[in-house]
Amino acid sequence: MSGGGAPAGRAGGGTVDASGAGGVPAAGSLTTSASGTGGVPALRVRGLVHVYPEGTRALDGVDLDVAPGELVAIVGQNGSGKSTLVRHLNGLLRPTEGSVEVLGDDASRLRVAALAGRVGLVFQDPDRQIFSRRVRPEVAFGPSNLGLKGKALDAVVDAALAAVGLADQAASNPYDLGYSRRKLLAIASILAMRTPIVVLDEPTTGQDLRGIDLVRSIVAALAAEGRTVLAISHDMRFVAETFARVVVMRGGRIVLDGPPGEVFAEQAWPVLASTYLEAPLTARVGARLGLGSTPTEASLVDALAARGAP
Ligand SMILES: Nc1ncnc2c1ncn2[C@@H]1O[C@H](COP(=O)(O)OP(=O)(O)OP(=O)(O)O)[C@@H](O)[C@H]1O
Ligand SMILES: [Mg+2]
User: Which of 26, 115, 224, 236 has a Cα at 20 to 30 A from 192?
Assistant: First the structure.
């Protein structure tokens, strides 16, 4: 789906000051601790219910607090409400009940442009996000709507294209790129906006190992800048290796929330199974060998070494 103008939530609602969209400091000046933003949570979701017009109750009471600089994965079976939840974070959807606060302000009271300066959402389907006929203007759209121009704009666009490995494709038509690279282009468009909060809806879908590693390194780079990252994923290995916190959804509710070592520990497997998830292989091998919770390769290797395996 291309054409049809800029999608909602991509800073389409007028120009704001890039250095302080909605009073928010530019991402580069955020510190990694909650104290850097005066203790204000990055996100505060309370009693969030969303009923789509035709009657589906996609969210059924979600409470979620995310501190600045946290790395959070959201997982759960198809249709459990993950995308619906994150679409509330940049104002694409409004709550049927409950509230969403972004950096201390009620999202429903912020203008679309102000919210777009705070939360960058990479859509699950890149073809619903991409609307330009060339790669470079696609990436430049968001930051130029946030007020960047000239060399400053060129710099953020170049950096975003380089981060996703598309620097050589700046003049290409997005629809000549192939799905996995369109997905990376969609990520670049959001990276270029340098929002303090970045939300990635299934960034690794369709990516080979190199693409998954690239996404992992992008998340790590955002984390190193103190930015808050949420990502939806069905790839439990990627989740365990990349994120410090895992939120598990089922039927529009959060049913587990904790570090990978807890969420993928054997005691949690029945809850995971109830939303059609399975802990990563390393966790299952560790449990089978009586090594405790080993959600990552490093933790499995360490546990094996501690036990004296060859
Ligand atoms: N635009 C829409 N209109 C009506 N119902 C919708 C819409 N989008 C999602 N739904 C329904 O809301 C529920 C939650 O969907 P959502 O897309 O949030 O789930 P998800 O966890 O992201 O799933 P997936 O893993 O398949 O992407 C599902 O029952 C889905 O069919
Ligand atoms: Mg989804």
Answer: 236
Residue 83 in any domain: the answer is: yes
- Of ligand 1's listed atoms, the one at least distance from the Cα of 52 is 4
Rounded CA-CA distance 179/266 in Å is 36
Q: How far is it, in rounded angstroms, from Cα 120 to Cα 195?
A: 6
CATH number for position 246: 3.40.50.300
How many domains, in total, are found in the chain?
1
CA 124 to ligand 1: nearest atom: 27
Range of 80's domain?
50-254
Asked whether residue 277 is assigned to any structural domain, the reply reads no
pLDDT tens, position by position, for the chain (310 residues)? 333 445 544 544 333 333 333 333 343 333 333 444 458 999 999 999 999 999 999 999 999 999 999 999 999 999 999 999 999 999 999 999 999 999 999 999 999 889 999 999 999 999 999 999 999 999 999 999 999 999 999 999 999 999 999 999 999 999 999 999 999 999 999 999 999 999 999 999 999 999 999 999 999 999 999 999 999 999 999 999 999 999 999 999 999 999 999 999 999 999 999 999 999 999 999 999 999 999 999 999 999 999 885 5
Note whether residue 203 is domain-resident: yes
Reported as type and span, the H/E element at residue 86 is helix 82-87
Residue 201 CA to ligand 2 centre (angstroms) = 7
